[in-house]
Amino acid sequence: MRYWLFKSEPDVWGWDQQVARGAAGEQWDGVRNYQARNFMREMALGDRGFFYHSNKGKAVVGMVEVCATAHPDSTTDDPRWECVDIRALQPAVREVTLEEIKADPRLKDMVLVNNSRLSVQPVSEAEWQVICDLAGLET
DNA sequence: GCCAACGTTGGC
DNA sequence: GCCAACGTTGGC
């Protein structure tokens, strides 16, 4: 299994909305960046990810699971863009802020820290464990 | 609200 | 194929 991080502005699509979609999940649409799309193409059913609030909050707020592999993004006719579906699994008991992540030497290589603009990004297993611990998420 | 960083576009 | 111009993202 691989681990990922999905970034969204809470004003546009927030954790509460994701939770409201329940087990059916929701397509992670609107990505118009090749790197992010390519990561989504690599995702497998059951891969786990963090749900991160950018701009407001700037924190990991929950855990999600990939529940559909890459398919065309229904919000555009442009065939270049694809997306996966994700569903909420658990809310963070404690939100893990960007500030904390930046301050933790174990997380210094995270894409979130080094390429903050990438909206879909891989997370290493070690990083996954550290953040799950900090957030009170069960792995 | 500002601005730096980055990705994309399009003229040449 | 290069690169300047432009638009967008996201932290501060």
Search tags:
globular, ph1033 like fold, 139 residues, DNA-binding, Putative RNA-binding protein with PUA-like domain, 6-stranded mixed beta sheet, single chain, 5hmC_binding, THYN1-like_EVE, alpha+beta, EVE_domain
Rg? 14 Å
The total of helices stands at 5
Per CATH, the superfamily is: ph1033 like domains
Order of helices and strands: EHEHEEEHHEH
Question: How does the major sheet shape up?
Answer: 6 strands, mixed
In CATH's first tier, which class applies?
Alpha Beta
CATH topology: ph1033 like fold
- The end-to-end span amounts to 12 Å
Q: Give, in spatial order, the strands making up the sheet with the most strands.
A: 2-5-4-3-1-6
Helix-strand category: alpha+beta
How many runs of DSSP E, i.e. beta strands? 6
Helical proportion?
25-40%
- Shape from CA axes? globular
How much strand?
Answer: 25-35%
How many domains? The number is: 1
CATH architecture: Roll
Low-confidence stretches: none
- Overall pLDDT score: 95
Helices and strands, with pairings:
Layout: E1 3-8, H1 15-20, E2 26-27, H2 34-42, E3 48-53, E4 59-72, E5 82-97, H3 98-103, H4 111-114, E6 120-123, H5 125-135
Parallel strand pairs: 1-3
Antiparallel strand pairs: 1-6, 2-5, 3-4, 4-5
The protein binds a DNA duplex (12 and 12 nucleotides) through residues 7, 9, 32-35, 54-55, 58, 98, 115-119.
